[in-house]
UniProtKB/TrEMBL annotation:
It is found in: Cell outer membrane. Gene3D superfamilies: TonB-dependent receptor, beta-barrel domain (2.40.170.20), TonB-dependent receptor, plug domain (2.170.130.10). Residues 1-21 form the signal peptide. Keywords: Cell outer membrane, Membrane, Signal, TonB box, Transmembrane, Transmembrane beta strand, Transport. One of its GO terms (cellular component) is cell outer membrane. This is Vitamin B12 transporter. SUPFAM superfamilies: Porins. One of its GO terms (biological process) is siderophore transmembrane transport. It comes from Flavobacterium xinjiangense. Belongs to the TonB-dependent receptor family. Residues 245-610 form the TonB-dependent receptor-like beta-barrel domain. It holds the Pfam family Plug.
Length: 636
């Protein structure tokens, strides 16, 4: 695809579609959450501190990636989000690893069956397609199955509006440079458009996004006088959603999307490579019918994806293919105005194949499936007690049966104070790669996880000041590690524990000035090669200076991180030779937004790492210095 055509297509659309321009209707803020019951539930009746990133919140972070946005949430660390665009990401929630976090897109789990950990690659998703994000921390396998051990990230994509035709076209340009070596030429391009609308019983949404970035080498030279080649990253995303509502009670939603990502990468820490690259293509389709009746609602969330990946590394080509199918059928039945029950069953199928000059795995061998019936009851009393409890029975084609459960009581003493507690269990099956690759072990056991937490939420001054805090302890058993001496996956003996505290505070000084901050303390019994800081602070001030002008200043502190060079301390591990301390760092970012033409054209400017701090996020890899980004968004 011609890059110049993609790059400037958004600008052309600004004028070509102007004849259809109409004023945009203001959106109402959503005051409900869905992650802890799969159905809309008032935040006041939820027994979890669920962080919701709304569309308005995303506007305040214009120019940032999905990973950067998530990394500002208490308890969430995404290693790689401060590196050059395209760096692989390590997703850590409460001291867990990528495969212990389940990612949903419009309620459907997304996975890569050919990946090392079955986890979804957040680099595939442009933030411009997202309407909102919910983050629910803690073991959540009761509702969501394997993989939901430390948290669930529930991403809702944008949907159709009520007009016959509406949409937007946007373009962002920015720099991409390391600290202390300023090169402020434009190296980062992101552009796209979306159209949506509805008529009679049909609605639609379609979008196209393209990103191209260069300017930074993935690996960092050991010697400041050495120059490494810049590594490029490019991505194309397209999405189509169609809804059909034949009656008020019945609706059908369909989606299809295509993602293509090409990424240069280096040979590892402090090691350049001129030829390495990866190319991945993802095809996803899904279907979600919903039926409402007098006492409840029945939903089927289904999705299937195919991923093809070529990786050229160390002079040889590695090709991988995967296919996953997920069908989750569940029903909400209201027994009374205070009690409803969610019953469901989920089916998952995963298979992979790969081929290289050293080895080959066929999909006839590398596959498994799961069937999980589950039930959850939600009780909301009229005297302040709320209770969420349930269980899931996992039937795995290879690992037999697993039972997980949760109990989550909370109590609202008044309109201003709520206390919460929960105990929940989870399980994580080994990935197909960990079982069937040359490094795998067919005798691996599933990981088992349990999380206990207790906390409170208080609001005062007419809810202008809100404070919440949660203390947790998580315990995992049979964790899967990788021994760098034997090059084999193995189950770690004994139990690994993590504990911590997460606090959040928000204060609305008035309608124009708002402040929010969070602090996370996480302590791991075993570091497990997890670059999770012990202390992390995020703070931000949002100012709506005029009806059209707004700006945001954000601060982040990341403490020292203890790096082990092996996934888990194996029998061959030497703590002196195989560990290192990565020093703490602080960043300040800024963002300004202005409605140039009200409800029609807005622009933004952003500065990351304002003070141009040189720091280490991952040992031997580059990090971004002071960088600028400018963007415009035209609404029609």
């Amino acid at each position: 695809m011609n890059k110049k055509f993609i790059r400037f297509s958004a600008i052309a659309l600004l004028f070509a579609m102007n004849t259809y321009a109409q004023d945009q209707e203001p959106k109402q803020l959503d005051e409900v959450v869905v992650s802890d019951s799969k159905f809309a539930l008032s935040k006041e009746k939820s027994g979890k501190v669920i962080v919701k990133i709304t569309s308005e919140d995303l506007k305040k972070k214009s120019g940032q990636s999905v990973a950067s946005v998530l990394s500002t949430v208490a308890g969430v660390e995404i290693n790689g989000n401060q590196s050059r665009n395209g760096k692989d990401l390590g997703l850590y929630i409460r001291g867990g690893r990528n495969h212990q976090v389940l990612i949903l897109i419009d309620g459907v789990p997304v996975t890569d069956a050919s990946g090392i950990s079955l986890s979804y690659d957040l680099r595939l998703l442009p933030v411009e397609q997202i309407e909102s994000i919910e983050i629910m921390k803690g073991a959540s396998s009761t509702l969501y199955g394997s993989g939901a051990a430390t948290g669930v990230i529930n991403i809702t994509l944008k949907k159709a509006g009520k007009k016959a035709i509406a949409g937007n076209a946007y373009m962002n340009i920015g720099t991409q440079t390391v600290a202390k070596k300023a090169n402020y030429s434009v190296q980062d391009y992101n552009q796209g458009f979306a159209v949506n609308g509805g008529f009679e019983k049909v609605n639609y949404f379609a979008s196209l996004n393209s990103t191209e970035t260069t300017g930074i080498s993935e690996a960092k030279p050991l010697n400041s006088n050495t120059k490494f080649e810049n590594d490029a990253f490019s991505r194309v995303n397209s999405l189509v959603k169609i809804g059909f509502t034949p009656t008020k009670k019945l609706s059908f939603d369909f989606f299809a999307n295509y993602d293509r990502m090409k990424n240069d990468f280096d040979a590892g820490s402090f090691a350049d490579d001129l030829k390495n690259f990866s190319l991945s293509e993802q095809f996803r389709v899904g279907f979600s019918p919903k039926y409402k009746y007098n006492k409840g609602e029945f939903v089927i969330n289904s999705g299937a994806n195919v991923i093809n990946r070529d990786i050229f590394s160390y002079g040889s080509l590695f090709q991988a293919k995967s296919r996953s199918v997920n069908v989750d059928a569940f029903n909400k039945y209201e027994i009374s105005s205070q009690l409803f029950v969610v019953t469901g069953a989920q089916f998952q199928f995963h298979e992979m194949s790969n081929m290289s000059q050293y080895d080959a795995i066929t999909n006839e061998v590398a596959k498994f499936n799961m069937i999980d019936p589950y039930v959850t009851a939600v009780y909301n009393s009229d005297f302040g007690l709320n209770l969420n409890a349930g269980a899931r029975y996992n039937i795995h084609s290879k690992y037999g049966n697993n039972l997980v459960y949760n109990i989550n009581p909370s109590y609202t003493f008044s309109e201003n104070l709520k206390v919460i507690a929960s105990y929940s269990t989870a399980f994580i099956t080994p990935s197909l790669y960990q079982l069937y690759s040359p490094y795998g072990d067919l005798n691996l056991s599933p990981e088992k996880d349990a999380t206990a937490e207790v906390g409170f939420e208080v609001s005062v001054l007419n809810k202008k000041l809100v404070l919440n805090a949660v203390a947790f302890q998580r315990e995992e058993e049979d964790a899967i590690g990788f021994d760098l001496m034997t090059y084999k996956y193995f189950n770690v003996n004994g139990k690994n524990k993590a504990k911590g505290v997460e606090t959040m505070v928000s204060y609305a000084l008035n309608d124009k000035v708002k402040f929010n901050a969070n602090y996370t303390f996480t302590e791991l019994e075993r570091q497990s090669r997890i670059l999770n800081p012990k202390h992390k602070v995020n703070a931000a001030v949002d100012v709506q200076a005029t009806p059209r002008l707004a700006f945001n200043v954000a601060y982040q502190f990341v403490s020292d991180r203890y790096l082990e060079y092996t996934t888990y301390p194996a029998p061959t591990y030497n703590p002196v030779l195989n560990s290192e301390i990565l020093k703490d760092y602080q960043l300040v970012n800024g963002n300004v937004r202005y409605d140039l033409i009200k409800n029609r054209l807005n622009i933004f400017g952003a500065v990351d790492n304002i003070f141009d701090k040189d720091f280490v996020e991952s040992r031997g890899y580059s990090t971004r210095g002071r960088n600028f980004k400018l963007g415009l968004n035209f609404l029609f």
